[in-house]
Amino acid sequence: MDLALDLARKGIRGANPLVGAVILDPAGAVLSSGFHRGAGTAHAEADALANAAASGADVTGATMVVTLEPCNHTGRTGPCSQAIINAGISRVIYAAADSTADAAGGAAALAAAGVSVDGGLMAAESTDLNHRWIRAAQEKRPFVTVKSAQSLDGRTAAEDGTSQWITGTAARTDGHSIRTRADAVVVGTGTVLVDNPQLTARNAAGEDAVQQPLRVAAGHRPVPDDAAIRGTDGRFLQLFEHDPAEICRELYARGVRHLMIEGGATVAGAFLRAGLADELVAYIAPVLLGAGTPAFANLGVHTLSDASRWRWDETDGGAARLVGADLRLRLEPVPAGTQPVDVPAGTQQLEG
Ligand SMILES: NC(=O)C1=CN([C@@H]2O[C@H](COP(=O)(O)OP(=O)(O)OC[C@H]3O[C@@H](n4cnc5c(N)ncnc54)[C@H](OP(=O)(O)O)[C@@H]3O)[C@@H](O)[C@H]2O)C=CC1
Ligand SMILES: Nc1c(N[C@@H]2O[C@H](COP(=O)(O)O)[C@@H](O)[C@H]2O)[nH]c(=O)[nH]c1=O
What's the pLDDT at 343? Predict the structure, then answer.
């Protein structure tokens, strides 16, 4: 299960949980393994089975160890419970139960088909890995990624409102990869009126990605008829709304399961203050602005003990990475009831 959890951590956060799977032969040797790479791609179980098939491994009578109870529904991919039964796996050991209404029931389906099933092994670790995704699923709202591109001193625009560009091409392309995974991208009307953003997902060459998010402007001021965000593909929506919970509710009702907040400071701050940010991706450029728009406004933090504390997210290649000339940081909220750690695991400490 340790190995399966390590595999799960390679995945990408978004509409779906992080899941890893390992298939063992009756002697306990690893036959194959797999993990989930995000919504629309193979589930970890299917990935492990496909990898076994590709390497010619016989999984008949094998044991599958998986970090989440196998799903029992046909979503964008087929039910894993049936794939496991069809493959002839005779035992499944999973960590956390799948509590989502439409995917639950996999353990029962496996047991009914004669597969030996045990749940709960390292469930706490699996739940911790996906604690924000679980919360979003329970609250029936999208998983929310807040992205910002800021100067070294935390500014997202200079004093006069100019902000294009703070980060370099590679970091912006990386940000576009979040757009293409998200079902919707939100900016406030402030950003629409100052920046006139397109908000499409584009590759390094500036070409549109195949998968495009819904482009959403939040706020009461009208979005001009010729605003770039409107586009021509019909994937534009204005929500005359400030309340992040309402924005989430409205977008969830429209099928949005992964929401990206691109800013500006007012809208991003509102999501953070409402506790509706599940993931923070901050691109930090080696540039100083001294004054200007902060990354997040109106957090309601007046004294240090009220600070919004986060922890490093070591999944998907690590919490800190240079992307071109800029630093990409990825963080997640500290789970309720957990103390933030002073020194994140894996941090190299300078001696002396
Ligand atoms: N570097 C970066 O990553 C980014 C930089 N920017 C920069 O930031 C600046 C814009 O920042 P900002 O003005 O904060 O823009 P926002 O995009 O956050 O827009 C703020 C406006 O949105 C509406 N609104 C929506 N939700 C709320 C809410 N919960 N509370 C209050 N108002 C809400 C209000 O307008 P209304 O009156 O219409 O309702 C408000 O004035 C620009 O200079 C832009 O270039 C912007 C995005 C990213
Ligand atoms: N300035 C800034 C960003 N700004 C964000 O990108 C939007 C522009 O998107 P588009 O018109 O589609 O290219 C802009 O309105 C704001 O939300 N992003 C970054 O990665 N780095 C940057 O330096």
Answer: 53
